[in-house]
Amino acid sequence: MRLYESTTNEDLVAILKEEMLDEAFEELFNRFIPMIYSIRSVYTVPEFQLDDYFQEGRITLLNAIDTFECNRNVYFASFLHRLYKNHIYNKLRKVYSLKRQNGFCDLSIDTPHISEKTSQEINILEVISDPHCFEPEATMMIKERANDYFTQLSALEKKAIVSFLGHTTYENVAKELELPVDTIRSAMSRARRKIRLEFNEVD
Question: Any residues with CB less than 8 A from the CB of 22 and at least 6 apart, and which?
């Protein structure tokens, strides 16, 4: 049995606030490795390797230990999740901010697209948002923060969304992009997952 294996996250933080013990820190860090993998699967920072996500995780954990208030009725896991997610998200925003400054053209949620099949205007929001998952208030939040959301999408996810506007089926999108249907389905699923994570954050 490891020395701190049965110690709660909050108690470990309290110990580390008093003295930064390597074994206690590693115990706490190892508990949140699944969180790092989870956020990495959603927020893909260009040129970031797994080691980079781990390094940023250690930096965030140190910051979380320093700023977490142990006497508040808040779980450390939720606190760290929000802190790390925002940290990685800000890294992603900086990357795409530089790309925009160099002529990178980002998608806009307010730009209507014409469906080749129906000749009707379709809003990107209708494609990326599952109407069964969002209340009207959440939809307004999505509109307000849509440009930030699009910076999180990979090139394939953006292509899939734009192509989907004109074809409405995974099969037709796959044919246009010359990719397997499962690849398109996965790209759209990731795009939807990212928007859910962005607007349904863990408290």
Answer: none
